[in-house]
């Protein structure tokens, strides 16, 4: 069973103080995607992208986007953003139901729980939540806390956070193996 990574963008991948989601939105709105290659180089931090790739290479997960970006961008646009930032492997492994249910007044815990409930089929697959402390503030103290890595604002998915993410997935996969074998 493939694990699922539930992925936020802001403060996980996107930590640049100049290149932000509003610049990406303007590029789509004005059809100027090719006019600012620096945007695509910097919008998602190099180390965060590298750490996500390392996680992917070890676990080959499916991805679900849980981000405010889904309020402004549709699936095709999200895929374009991921391709332009070197995250094709996320596009190639997006879950069929690619995003958590999101409304302007929802919060991360209910969005993720809603997605998990809709896809559990009797038991949850191994999963990991990559979020930030602000967006994910409803996660600590919840039943999702042990499967979440909350990144620091303006810092993102660092190597220590990668190590925590690997441990969370390894522990779940080990338990899943023991459970299915016996």
Q: Could you list some keywords that capture this structure?
A:
182 residues; alpha/beta; Rossmann fold; 13% strand
- Kindly identify the CATH topology: Rossmann fold
Distance between the termini: 16 Å
Q: Which geometry do the CA atoms define?
A: globular
Rounded mean pLDDT is 92
List low-confidence stretches: 178-182
Number of H- or I-type helical stretches: 7
Secondary-structure element pattern, one letter each: EHHHEHHEHEEH
- CATH architectural designation: 3-Layer(aba) Sandwich
Number of strands: 5
Largest sheet: 5 strands, parallel
What is the multimeric organization of the chains shown? single chain
The proportion of residues forming helix, as a percent range, comes to: 40-55%
Rg, alpha carbons: 16 Å
Bin the strand percentage.
5-15%
| Overall number of structural domains | 1
Helix vs. strand class: alpha/beta
What is the class in the CATH system? Alpha Beta
Describe this structure in words.
By secondary structure, the protein is an alpha/beta fold. It has one domain (4-181): Rossmann fold, CATH 3.40.50. It has helices at residues 21-29, 37-42, 46-59, 75-84, 88-92, 108-119, 159-181; strands at residues 4-7, 62-65, 94-99, 127-132, 148-151. It has a five-stranded parallel β-sheet. Helix 3 (46-59) runs parallel beside helix 7 (159-181). The two termini are 16 Å apart.
Short description:
With 182 residues, the chain is an alpha/beta fold. Helix content is 43%, strand content 13%. Strands 3-2-1-4-5 form a 5-stranded parallel beta sheet.
């Amino acid at each position: 069973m493939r694990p699922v990574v539930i992925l936020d963008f802001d403060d996980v991948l996107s930590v640049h103080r100049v290149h932000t989601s509003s610049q990406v939105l303007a590029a789509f709105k004005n059809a100027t995607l090719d006019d600012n290659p620096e945007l695509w180089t910097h919008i998602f931090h190099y180390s965060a992208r590298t750490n996500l790739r390392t996680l992917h290479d070890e676990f080959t997960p499916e991805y679900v986007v849980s981000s405010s970006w889904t309020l402004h961008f549709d699936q095709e646009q999200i895929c374009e953003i991921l391709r332009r930032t070197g995250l094709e492997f996320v596009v190639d492994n997006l879950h069929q139901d690619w995003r958590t249910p999101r409304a302007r007044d929802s919060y991360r815990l209910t969005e993720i729980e809603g997605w998990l409930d809709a896809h559990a089929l009797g038991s949850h697959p191994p999963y990991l939540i990559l979020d930030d402390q602000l967006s994910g503030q409803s996660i600590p103290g919840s039943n999702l806390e042990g499967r979440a890595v909350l990144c620091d604002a303006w810092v993102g998915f660092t190597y220590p956070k990668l190590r925590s993410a690997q441990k969370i997935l390894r522990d779940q996969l080990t338990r899943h193996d023991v459970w299915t074998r016996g």
